[in-house]
Structure of Recombination protein RecR:
Amino acid sequence: MDFSSKLLENAVNEMSRLPGIGKRTALRLVLHLLKQPKENTAYLSEALLHLRNDMKNCEKCHNISDTVLCAICNNPKRNSEIICVVEDIRDVMAIESTSQFNGLYHVLGGKISPIEGIGPQNLKIDSLIKKVANEEVKELIFALSSTMEGDTTNFYIFKQIEKFNIKISTIARGISVGDELEYADEITLGRSIVHRIPFEQSIRG
Ligand SMILES: [Zn+2]
């Protein structure tokens, strides 16, 4: 791509670093911003900067939060005895939109993936195990996507916590194998949480 302007080239290059944004799309977005009032670009830049500077991770569940504890952990109406284990914040948002779950979450920040070099130590697994060991958790629900990495992660955590006297369940697989949670429709996902099954039953096949 030949640019007549260095300013344009820089903006397009930065924009095209985003996932799914090629150079052509980046150019279209940048030219769109140039046609809009200047304030729009300022609002966008400010929102992104605020997000990066002020965003926190909830100390309890590792969900993205504006405060030390996220709104879910801070809500006294939520049942703190049930914890739903998810990969990332998109899963929290997907499950919240079903309105079928009233417990708390634990956001792992990914799945165990030897190919990508992600081991248990790279995820928030230790804090989950501590939570189970120290707190009054009665049930843990695995809600990771049903991929090999998801299954490996479930099994790894299961092995660490099976000695504790808690109920361990997994969401029912109305969601077909390999599907990512965030793409499941709300009704299917809601049902799969309500009709969750004991984890040991799921690994026996
Ligand atoms: Zn939280």
Q: What stands out?
A: The longest helix spans residues 38-54. The chain has a mean pLDDT of 90. The chain has two domains: 6-54, 64-203.
